[in-house]
Amino acid sequence: MRVIGPDPADIGGIAELKWVAEHAYMHSILMAPHGTANGLLGLGALINVCATLPANYIAFEYPSASDPWWEDLVIGLPSQIVKDSMVDLLEAPGLGLDIDAEATRKYLREEDAGFFD
Questions:
Q1: 41 pLDDT more than 70
Q2: Residue 73 to residues 9, 36, 62, 107: CA-CA distances in angstroms?
Q3: CA separation for the pair 80, 88 (Å, rounded)
Q4: CATH number, position 102
C-alpha cells in the first residue's frame, strides 16, 4: 500500500485521523485524506488537521458546492478555497468556520424550522 485516504467521519474523528497519519508516516505510506461528504464544517476540520500532519500528507479532497447557495451557509470560508494548488488555513478560532443561522433558516425543512431557536 502506497497511499491511504481515510475520512475523519469514518475512522472516528480528527484525533484518529492524526493517529492514522502518524502511523502511516512510520511505515512510509502517503496520505491523502478524504472528506467530501462531511460538508463545509468538515472542510474546516480537515483544513486544520491537515496543517498538523507529518510529511507524508500529500493532498486532500474537499467538497464543492452543487447549489449556488451552499457556501452561504457558513461564515469564514474564502470565496476561492484553492489558490495555486494550496489551501490557506482559516483564520477564525475553532474550525475556522461557523454556521450562518440566518442564511441557513431559509433552507430548513418545515419540520426543522425551530432548529436554531
A1: yes
A2: 20, 16, 16, 9
A3: 10
A4: 3.20.20.120
Query: Secondary structure of 57-95 in the HEC alphabet?
Result: ECCCCCCCCCCCCHHHHEECCCCCCCECCECCCCCCCCC
Question: Vertex 3, ends 27 and 55: CA angle to 5°?
Answer: 60
Strand, coil or helix: what is 4? strand
Q: What span, in angstroms and rounded, lies between the C-alpha atoms of 69 and 115?
A: 19
The model's pTM: 0.76
Domain total of the chain? 1
State mean pLDDT over 64-71: 74
